[in-house]
Each structure stands twice: as structure tokens, then as C-alpha cells.
């Protein structure tokens, strides 16, 4: 993926669908890289297909690693409030040719994989409230 292609694809997406901030797409790209990285040395594994669930789990782990208890606030500011939002972003990037897909990949694969509250809020609540 070339930076110029990503930038022009992002411009195209934002001109027709302004629901998400540019930072949301940048973070999604970084989260995908995190999800496909070889955990032993953080080397990106090229041409590896990532399922929706794998991407969403990597997204959650990366968001918590990068932003901790502020993850839900930042994601919300960027327009990301659910797993379905991430799926919408993925498919916008697929339409622009930035991300690839298999015939079996659908937006429905991103629906309710986890609750954002359980993923990003609950880990930081006092044990007595969980």
C-alpha cells in the first residue's frame, strides 16, 4: 500500500462519507498492521488474509495498548462507536482498492463481535462494579 494511494483514497472516502474522521482510518490501517504482525518480532506478514474477527480483536488490543482508558473517548471522537463502524470503514477502504477482500467477506462479519463498553470501558472499572 503506497502512502499516496492511501491519502487519495481517504480524500475520496471523506468526500462521499464524512461519518469518520481521517484519524479513524489511519488508526484502522495501523490496527490492521498490528493484527497481521508476527507477534514474536512485530514483522508484518505480507499477503495474510485477516478475518473480521481477527481484525476486530487486533483493533481492540491495539487501541487498549495505544490509548488505554482513553480509547473509547478517542474512538468516539473519530466516529467509531461499534464493531459495525469498523466494518463500514473496512468496506469503504475495500471500495477504494486500499484493502483487499475474499468473496466470503461481508459487512455482517463485523456486527456485534464485541460490545465497545465491554471492550474499552469494563477493563478500567473498579472490580466491585464489574
Can you tell me about this structure?
There is one protein chain. With 130 residues, the chain is mostly helical. The protein has one domain (3-129). The chain contains six helices and two strands, in the order H-H-E-E-H-H-H-H. The protein has helices spanning 3-16, 22-36, 52-67, 71-77, 83-95, 116-121; strands at residues 37-38, 43-44. Strands 1-2 form a two-stranded antiparallel sheet. A hairpin with a 4-residue loop joins strand 1 (37-38) and strand 2 (43-44). The longest helix has 16 residues, at 52-67.
Overall average pLDDT: 90
Shape: globular
How far is it from the N-terminal to the C-terminal residue, by CA? 42 Å
Alpha carbon gyration radius: 15 Å
List unreliable stretches of 5+ residues: none
Number of helices, counting only DSSP H or I runs of 4 residues or more:
6
What is the helix content? 40-55%
Strand content: under 5%
Question: How many distinct beta strands?
Answer: 2
Task: Give the structural class.
Answer: mainly alpha
Number of domain modules: 1
Strand order of the largest sheet: 1-2
Sum this structure up briefly.
This protein has 130 residues and is mainly alpha-helical.
Q: Any descriptors?
A:
single chain; 130 residues; two-stranded antiparallel ribbon; 3% strand; globular
Give the helices and strands, then pairings:
Elements: H1 3-16, H2 22-36, E1 37-38, E2 43-44, H3 52-67, H4 71-77, H5 83-95, H6 116-121
Antiparallel strand pairs: 1-2
Amino acid at each position: 500500500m503506497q502512502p499516496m494511494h492511501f491519502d487519495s483514497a481517504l480524500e475520496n472516502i471523506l468526500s462521499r462519507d464524512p461519518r469518520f474522521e481521517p484519524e479513524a482510518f489511519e488508526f484502522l490501517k495501523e490496527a490492521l498492521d498490528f493484527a497481521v504482525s508476527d507477534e514474536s518480532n512485530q514483522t508484518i506478514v505480507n499477503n495474510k488474509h485477516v478475518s473480521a474477527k481477527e481484525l476486530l480483536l487486533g483493533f481492540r488490543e491495539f487501541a487498549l495498548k495505544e490509548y488505554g482508558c482513553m480509547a473509547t473517548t478517542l474512538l468516539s471522537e473519530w466516529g467509531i462507536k461499534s464493531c459495525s463502524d469498523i466494518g463500514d470503514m473496512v468496506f469503504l477502504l475495500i471500495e477504494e482498492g486500499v484493502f483487499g477482500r475474499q468473496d466470503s467477506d461481508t459487512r455482517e462479519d463485523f456486527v456485534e463481535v464485541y460490545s465497545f463498553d465491554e471492550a474499552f470501558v469494563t477493563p478500567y472499572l473498579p472490580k466491585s462494579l464489574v
